[in-house]
Design goal:
Elements: H1 2-16, E1 26-33, E2 36-41, E3 49-52, E4 58-64, E5 69-73, E6 85-92, E7 94-97, E8 105-106, E9 123-126, H2 149-154, E10 164-167, H3 173-182, E11 190-196, H4 200-212, E12 219-224, H5 230-249, E13 253-259, H6 261-274, H7 288-296, E14 310-318, H8 327-335, E15 338-342, H9 344-348, E16 361-362, H10 371-394, H11 402-418, H12 428-439, H13 448-464, H14 467-474, H15 482-496
Parallel strand pairs: 8-12, 10-14, 10-15, 11-12, 11-13, 13-14
Antiparallel strand pairs: 1-2, 1-6, 2-5, 3-4, 3-6, 4-5, 7-9, 15-16
Helix pairs in contact: 5-6, 7-8, 10-11, 10-12, 11-12, 12-13, 12-14, 13-15
């Protein structure tokens, strides 16, 4: 009886069953190296397509040949072995984008690193997107104030510009970028800090500074640390840029910091050598220039009829022994719109920020600078360059004439003015006040230990008695005439008097 019942159930199941055929392409892992794999099969696979392996491991197609496919692994793949199956996903590598990312620390794949739940993003952008067409771009003419006097005055940065920060290790490159992010606290600029190949402690220190200065609410941190797979380090800047482009296309202004592209180039070199790409100079592949050009070309300022947003890029590059003519630095210098060069010699002397104004340049220049700066900075920069030359010459002389002594004294005062502590940005009106006092010689006879207090007194005066002038400076409608300079000078003389040497 039981047997007949079982047979009846089987017959009924056969009558109601329907078979469907599922087709798909699968490949076989031929070999696995450190962070890369070679796949056979998959004749219809495409560049940048995501492949899925066992246990959810993922990789991105990087090279295509007639016989094999080179794959960059995006997750730790210690368990991946030759003979394992690789399946096509049919999709290119994408990253989640949206407002939910603000204040978060994520990987280049959008996975959380801050102990919170995954960001609730409803949209994704491919990490590789074409750069904005030329006809969609507007001139770079709106300043991005960094709050750093030496930058805003001598090498101004505009919204949509690409300004390189380069120098030897431990000279303050990241500090410049982080201080710039801190200065955007009340400007509405969305900031993205992309850490590539950095130590976990260094990245944690940056995140802590951003939290301490309360700028994480408008900041996104994308991390591919030194212990991350090389493939993840390679895609990190592109993923961060796609996140920034989402906000740019919404009409927002975005600042993105790549820290740093030297580590990014090394990660790409590692992947290329493992995938048997022919090496060139310093073993870098031939397209090393292209991977950075197509990244930085995505930074731009859009025309109003295309949203009017902007994406400003601050790539960071490390040099060795101050050699800016090395392969990677020269490549990126030729791509960017200027560079901020940090001098190891100045850093060792305690001149911070250690910006070498002679080697630093902004190719956008005064077009992205508030008008009030233009009437002051030209003469100031020329005088400072002459001072540096005179100071170098004075080392070989025992006696100098009175005029040269006076120029040296004023030059040293200007150098003291250009120094600035970390995480203490200065607004544009305050900077204009300090530079006005410096060019008029009001700081010439102030001892070094009183310089900071004297500058603060001048800045406070601008924020109290000259509020209308400060407002005009911020709105960009104030050119400094002789009458305005005279009024400011008379007030500043009284402000700095308590800090001057008693003998003066």
């Amino acid at each position: 009886m039981t047997e007949n019942t079982s047979v009846a159930k089987i017959k009924k199941a056969l009558q109601t069953a329907s078979a469907t055929i599922q087709t798909g392409e699968v490949g076989v892992v031929k070999s696995v190296s450190a962070g890369t794999a070679e796949i056979t099969g998959l004749p219809n696979a495409e560049m940048n397509e995501v492949l899925v392996f066992k246990d959810g491991m993922r990789g991105m197609i990087q090279t295509l040949t007639q016989e094999t496919i080179g794959v960059v692994l995006l997750t730790q793949a210690d368990a991946l072995q030759p003979g394992d199956i690789a399946e096509r996903s049919g999709a290119v590598l994408s990253v989640p984008v949206g407002e939910a990312l603000l204040g978060r620390v994520i990987t280049p794949l959008g996975e959380p690193l801050d102990g919170k739940q995954a960001p609730a993003c409803v949209q994704s952008f491919p990490i590789e997107r074409p750069a904005t067409p030329i006809m969609h771009r507007a001139p770079v003419n709106v300043p991005l104030q960094t709050g750093i006097k030496a930058v805003d005055a001598f090498v101004p940065i505009g919204r949509g510009q690409r300004e390189l920060i380069l120098g030897d290790r431990q000279t303050g490159k990241t500090a410049i970028a982080v201080d710039t992010i801190i200065n955007q606290k009340e400007t509405g600029v969305i900031c993205i800090y992309c850490a590539v190949g950095q130590r976990a402690t260094a990245t944690a220190r940056v995140i802590d500074e951003l939290k301490t200065n309360k700028v994480m609410d408008n900041t996104i941190v994308v991390v591919a640390g030194g212990d991350a797979p090389a493939g993840l380090q390679y895609i990190a800047p592109y993923a961060a840029t796609s996140i920034g482009e989402y906000f740019m296309e919404k009409g927002r202004d975005v600042l993105i910091v790549y820290d740093d592209l030297t580590a990014h180039a090394r990660a790409y070199r590692q992947l290329s050598l493992l995938l048997r790409t022919p090496p060139g100079r310093e073993a870098f592949p031939g397209d090393i220039f292209y991977i950075h050009a197509r990244l930085l070309e995505r930074a731009t300022h859009l025309r109003d009829n295309f949203g009017g947003g902007s994406l400003t890029a601050l790539p960071i590059v490390s040099t060795e022994a101050g050699n800016i003519s090395a392969y990677i630095p020269t490549n990126i210098i030729s791509i960017t719109d200027g560079q901020i060069y940090l001098s190891a010699e100045m850093f060792q002397k305690g001149i911070l920020p250690a910006i070498d104004t002679g080697r630093s340049v902004s190719r956008v220049g005064g077009d992205a600078q508030l008008p009030a700066y233009r009437s002051l900075v030209g003469a100031l920069k020329l005088f400072y360059a002459q001072f540096e030359e005179l100071e170098s010459f004075a080392r070989f002389s025992t006696q100098l004439d009175a005029e040269s002594e006076q120029r040296l004294k004023r030059g040293r005062a200007i150098r003291a003015v250009l120094q600035q502590p970390r995480c203490q940005p200065m607004s544009a009106p305050e900077q204009i006040a300090v530079f006005t006092a410096a060019t008029e010689g009001l700081f010439d006879n102030i001892p070094e230990e009183n310089m900071k207090s004297a500058q603060q007194a001048v800045a406070d005066l601008m924020n109290t008695e000259f509020q209308s002038t400060a407002k005009e400076i911020r709105e960009g409608i104030k050119n400094f005439g002789e009458e305005t300079k005279h009024r400011l000078k008379e007030a500043f003389i009284q402000a700095v008097r308590p800090f001057r040497e008693e003998s003066v």
